[in-house]
Design brief:
Binding site for NADP(+): 15-16, 36-37, 43, 58, 78-82, 150, 175, 183
Domain NAD-dependent epimerase/dehydratase: 7-248
Family: Belongs to the NAD(P)-dependent epimerase/dehydratase family. HldD subfamily.
CATH topology of the domain at 7-176 and 221-250 and 288-305: Rossmann fold
Strand content: 15-25%
Pathway: Nucleotide-sugar biosynthesis; ADP-L-glycero-beta-D-manno-heptose biosynthesis; ADP-L-glycero-beta-D-manno-heptose from D-glycero-beta-D-manno-heptose 7-phosphate: step 4/4
Number of strands: 13
Active site: 146, 183
Helix content: 25-40%
Radius of gyration: 19 Å
CATH superfamily of the domain at 7-176 and 221-250 and 288-305: NAD(P)-binding Rossmann-like Domain
């Protein structure tokens, strides 16, 4: 990836996409083409002050490419409908399947390397583990329409005979960090817990409805957005074997650990209350996720992963306390 080559980032006004834009800027990459629906006022701060060549509305992107042949050298396709509470599959299908197919075909036809966002939501309850194995994709059972749409695209990818010169489907686990301020209910637990603690001096976590887990000991692979950007860029720069790659920390931590890390950062005694998990997500709730990170590490990725405590400290101290953006 050369500094004078043009890089497309879809979802560039969103959480991970805008962070990736800032991260690329920090490495000296400014030939960026930002693709998104830029009409949402709440996302404006995510790309204000960033350095880029063009801003293209997602509905006009393919037409723009026709009028600018040869203008794109790399694509990070991070744009998606990410609302896990949206139960209408067709809403997810439009952006997570059909639009992604168009991106794939564009990259294939023009010989453009592609990194696209899949999701750990594809793993469902983890009956088949959390291993980024291309061969088990058709056996996975996601728990909601969002996860199904992401897995349906992965399945479609596996069936393709024609493909980009390099592709990686990155399975994001529980990502947290700056630039997620606009996400509302879908923002990370860390974001919501911080605001609860600042307002009430306490935090509410979901009670366990599974006898195998005590309250607050449900576990997730929480991954700091800085590590996510680092892995995405590494994949594009190094282009190991094409395929699916987990993007997590490789270490499951409990929600209790997470809350305690926030209290510690704020120099407060932990004060945790438990509430029932909302019924609309209760039967689709994951109690444990942990990324198997061996594939990307065997491919040569050797950067240390940010611990939950380090990530929370950085996020709270340098961003949430000042409502700062990256």
């Amino acid at each position: 990836m050369q500094k004078n080559e043009n890089i497309v980032i879809t979802g560039a006004a969103g959480f991970i996409g805008s962070y990736l834009v800032g991260y690329l800027n920090s490495l000296g990459y400014e030939n960026l083409i930002l693709v998104d629906d830029f009409s949402a006022e709440k996302k404006v701060h995510n790309y204000t002050g960033k350095k880029y060549l063009h801003k293209v509305h997602r509905e006009q992107f393919f037409e723009w490419c026709e009028h600018h042949p040869g203008s794109v050298q790399y694509v990070f396709h991070l744009g998606a409908r990410t609302d896990t509470t949206e139960m209408d599959y067709n809403v997810h299908k439009k952006w997570n399947v059909d639009y992604s197919k168009q991106i794939w075909e564009l990259c294939t036809a023009n010989n453009i390397p592609l990194v696209y966002a899949s999701s750990a939501a594809t793993y469902g309850n983890g009956e088949h583990g959390y291993k980024d194995d291309n061969d088990i994709v058709s056996q996975l059972h996601p728990l909601n329409p969002y996860g199904k749409s992401k897995n349906d695209f992965d399945i479609w990818v596996m069936e393709q005979k024609h493909m980009p010169p390099f592709w990686a489907g990155v399975k994001f686990f529980n990502v947290y960090g700056p630039n997620e301020y606009h996400k509302g209910r879908m923002a990370s637990v860390i974001f919501h817990a911080y605001h609860q603690i600042k307002k009430n001096g306490s935090v509410k976590l979901f009670r366990s409805h599974n006898p195998n887990y005590k309250d607050g000991e449900q576990m997730r692979d929480f991954v700091y957005v800085k590590d996510v950007a680092s892995m995405c860029i590494w994949l594009m720069q190094n282009q190991p074997k094409s395929g699916l790659y987990n993007v997590g920390s490789g270490k499951a931590r409990s929600f209790k650990d997470l809350a305690t890390a926030i209290f510690t950062t704020l120099n407060l005694e932990p004060n945790i209350e438990f509430i029932d998990t909302p019924e609309d997500i209760r039967d689709k709730y994951q109690y444990f996720t942990e990324a198997d990170m061996s594939k990307i590490m065997k491919a040569g990725y050797n950067q240390p992963f940010t611990s939950l405590e380090e990530g929370v400290r950085d996020y709270v101290t340098n961003y949430l306390e000042h409502e700062a953006y990256f």
